Amino acid sequence: MKKLLAQSLGWENATDLGMTAATGGILAGIFGGLIFIKWATRKGYTHYVKDFSEISEDLKTGLVQPKNRTAMGNDTISPIAMDPLAFHLALLVVPSGLGYLLNNYIATAWGLEFPTFTIAFLIALLMYILLGKGEKGVYKYVDSKIVDRLGSAATDFLVFFGVASIKLPIVVEYALPLGLLMLSGIVVVVVMLVVIGPAMNYESWFERSIFVYGYSTGVFAIGLTLLRIIDPNNKSKTLTDTAVVGPLNTPLELFAWSAGPVMLLSGQHWTFVGIFAGISILCFIIARIFKWWHWKVPLGERPPVPLDRNESFIRISGEHIEK
Fold it and tell me: Which of 51, 116, 218, 261 could disulfide-pair with 26, CB 3.0 to 4.6 Å?
């Protein structure tokens, strides 16, 4: 589908370049994240892992020892009726398939092109509303851990087949602009990690920033992996806050993924840049107005997130006095 979309927009080679950029982003997220974690532990910026050597062998090697293994999920329905794994897989496949079919119909009937992901996501939201979370809803029979594992597996297969489909001659032909684009992206995410991250996060700034770094360079799973290395028990409340702000970020991401490629290829690149530049400036203004800007507080003096979220601190000259 990606190949067809790129071809319909007049640039079939964009698929290979996109997969190359995505692969580079994932590698930058994993290896770059580990480098920054080692740097932060040496500087004393981490609160829940004080030294890189404290990180468990499970995380270092990727092989979980028998004593540390946990279950992937629970049987929420009887295997006699339907295999639980097949049930959860169907919950993902059904909106994906319907999104693919509906997107093809829209393209044929009205000549409009949308990313299949966007259509499938909207159908999944509709299914979520219809199935519901109430006492009579079906959602109570869904195990989120199994869904997460299936999503991670799909991402691994996507990366594998995407890398295998890359045509090296095309990458070599566009090596210079592609390299500059990827380098610019790395610069942006590094600035977000070491400059914007601590400015907009007062407590547990590095734990929160490294999650955004991993998420920005690849996928949600990379950010989650980096976060678990330095905050395995979510003491920084990063995942909790991510769930809260998710509905606010999703419309912007959907717009960027859906309208972004079309606007860029149709010559409206400055309009696209201007929209997100305006959103960024607005975010900075809001942060300053509500005093969410902590640029002057030294990084080494930042506290962790209190175990009690209702616990408050008074900041006087960089010193934190507990109420």
Answer: 218
